[in-house]
Design brief:
Layout: E1 10-12, E2 15-16, H1 29-39, E3 53-54, E4 70-73, H2 86-103, E5 106-111, H3 114-124, E6 136-141, H4 150-154, E7 162-166, H5 176-180, E8 186-190, H6 202-215, E9 218-223, E10 237-238, E11 241-242
Parallel strand pairs: 1-4, 4-5, 5-6, 6-7, 7-8, 8-9
Antiparallel strand pairs: 2-3, 10-11
């Protein structure tokens, strides 16, 4: 469905449900949104949000979209959750490869479990004789310095575009080593929003902006965050400028 997330056009959820894995998950929007969707009777949200469900009936959806678009894959789950069989990950990747080639879509996969993504690719890469499609981007979430090593794992994947989502940004991050060696091609930053939102200091976002610019890497400020308004869109400003850079050529 069309998305209000600033860095994408569409969300595609052939999987729903997830479980928390690190502090960035504490106030995850999925856990707040899931009960509302369930109450509305939306298919795929019948269980508790911690129950991972596979929805193969949604696999064909990207092939029905004629206009090329950026697609956030599993915004309501994690493609590499341990309860998602590798065979189903393969089915999803097969659709992405086909739709990227025939429809021109760009797929954006975001995971907090890059180790499982690497394990899957090692097992299944021979099934993709043309390699990893350049229109399939993959990223990982890094909310504080403790989890920055997720990027070391992520860079083992051959995706031409690897990215980091520093949202919710919970402390000042130094990603210089990964940026300078080309491990990531895109940096997304966002403060936490909603009830109980933990504040993001503007200086933290500026630091990542400066690190990205110095390394020649695209920088995207999604939102500044806040309990009473996420301050996204035209309100997401640092140093009097909106930052919505995308990876080269996209």
């Amino acid at each position: 469905m069309p998305s209000t997330i600033e860095w994408t056009d569409e969300t595609w959820n052939p999987i729903t449900g997830c479980t928390r894995v690190s502090p960035g998950c504490d106030n995850c929007y999925m856990f707040a949104l899931y009960p509302r969707l369930k109450a509305m009777g939306v298919a795929g949200y019948d269980d508790a949000p911690g129950v991972v469900r596979l929805l193969p009936e949604r696999l064909p959806n990207p092939m029905s979209w004629k206009k090329p678009r950026h697609v956030f894959v599993n915004s309501m789950s994690d493609l590499f959750h341990p309860k998602v069989p590798f065979s189903f990950v393969f089915d999803i990747f097969s659709v992405m490869q086909e739709a990227a080639s025939s429809r021109g879509h760009v797929f954006q996969v975001l995971t907090k479990r890059p180790g499982r993504a690497v394990a899957w690719w090692k097992e299944y890469e021979k099934r993709f004789p043309n390699g990893w499609h350049p229109n399939i981007w993959i990223g990982t979430s890094v909310e504080n310095q403790k989890y920055a090593d997720r990027l070391t794992v992520l860079e083992r994947l051959p995706a031409p575009v690897r990215f980091v989502s520093a949202e919710p940004l919970l402390e000042r991050l130094d990603l210089t080593q990964w940026l300078n060696r080309g491990a990531i091609q895109w940096v997304i930053v966002g403060g936490e929003s909603g009830v109980g939102a933990r504040p993001m200091q503007t200086e933290w976002a500026c630091a990542l902006r400066d690190q990205s610019i110095d390394a020649g890497v695209a920088f995207f400020l999604k939102q500044l965050g806040g309990a009473r308004g996420k301050r996204g869109g035209d309100e997401a400003v640092i140093d009097d400028k909106i930052w919505r850079q995308m990876p080269v050529g996209r």
